[in-house]
Amino acid sequence: MSERRASCKPDFPILIADDNDLQRNVLEYVLRKEGHEVAVARDGRQAIELFTSGYFPIVITDWMMPHMTGLELCRAIRESHQDQFTYVILHSSRDGRDDVQTAMQAGIDEYLIKPVAPEKLSLRLATAHRVLKLEQALKRKLEEARQLATTDSLTRLYNRVFLDERLPLEVKRAIRYDRPLSIIFSDIDHFKTINDSYGHQAGDEVLKNFARRMKENVRDEVDWLARYGGEEFVLILPETDIDGAMIVANRLQRVVAGTPISVDNREIGVTASFGAASFSPRSDIDAATMAMELLGRADRCLYAAKEGGRNRCEGERLN
Predict the structure, then answer these.
(1) Among 28, 77, 215, 289, fewest CB within 10 Å belongs to which?
(2) pLDDT value, residue 148
(3) pTM for the whole thing?
(4) Does the annotation count 143 as an active-site position?
(5) Burial state string for 228-256 with b = 16 or more CB within 10 A and e = fewer than 16
(6) pLDDT the model gives residue 9
(7) Which CATH number applies to 160-318: 1.10.10.10, 1.10.510.10, 3.30.70.270, 3.40.50.1820?
(8) pLDDT tens for residues 266-283?
(9) What is the pLDDT of residue 286?
(10) How far, in Å, CA of 146 to CA of 64, rounded?
C-alpha cells in the first residue's frame, strides 16, 4: 500500500539545519508549500543560535554538519530546554543499523534516510504534531492541577501551601538583590459575629469581597495575596520597607472600613486589623528561618492591633 499524504495542520514552526544548500532549499520549499513556518540554518552552531532565540518545537537536522553535528545539536537542545519538549527529526544518508541506534541514543525522535519523499516527511510531521499536541495538553492538565493545589477555592487567592513554598523564595530573592521585603497579616474583625448574625453563606461573601478589595488595591503582578486560614490573609510586598508597608496597610484598612459589603440586599459593615513586618537583607540570614520570623512578627503586630481596639494597623521592622 502506498503512503498517502498525511494531513498535518502547521501549528508548530520548524527549524531546518543542513549544510547542503540544495537539500536544505528543497526541504524548505516542500515545507513552506504545505504551509509550515520555517527557519533555516546552514550548520549546527547557527541552528542552536536560532533555536535558543525563537520557538521551534520541531527540528529537522542533518547528521554531519560543520561546527556541530546533528547529534550534538540534539543533545544541546535536550540539555538546555528540559522544560519544553522538542521533536527532533534526523535526516541522513547513513542507513546502517548501528547509525540508527546511535542517533536514537542521542535523543533523536525520528530517523529518515535521504532522499526523503514528501509523503513520508508529511507522515512523520503528522506524528510530531500529535506528540506535541499531547504534550501541550498534559502541561495544561498539570498546570490546572498545580493551581487547584495552591489556590483557595473560595477566594481564588493563593492558599497556605503556596505561601509556605513561595515566601522563602521571596526572602532568597530579597537577599540576593539586597532589597527590602515586607508582609502584612490581616484579619477581619468580629468575623464570628458576622457568621452568627447573617449566616455562613453571607460570611463566605464577606470573605470573597474582602479578598477582592485587597487584590484591587495592591500592585498587580508584583505583590501577591494568600488566604492563611479562616478570616486571616497574608499580603507579600517585594521591594517594600516598613514605611511603605504601613502606607499600604493603612490604605487597605480605610478601603475595607469605608464601604459596607452588600449581601442579599443587606449592608454589612466590615473592618479589619493589620500587622506589618519588614526586614532588610543580610548575608547571614537563612531564608526559611527569616520567612517564619516575618510571619511571626507580623502576626504579633496584628495581635497588637486587635488589642489596641481593632480596625487599625501596627508594624515592626526586624533588625
Answers:
(1) 289
(2) 85
(3) 0.65
(4) no
(5) beebbbbbbbbebbbeebbebbeebbeeb
(6) 54
(7) 3.30.70.270
(8) 899 999 999 999 988 776
(9) 85
(10) 42
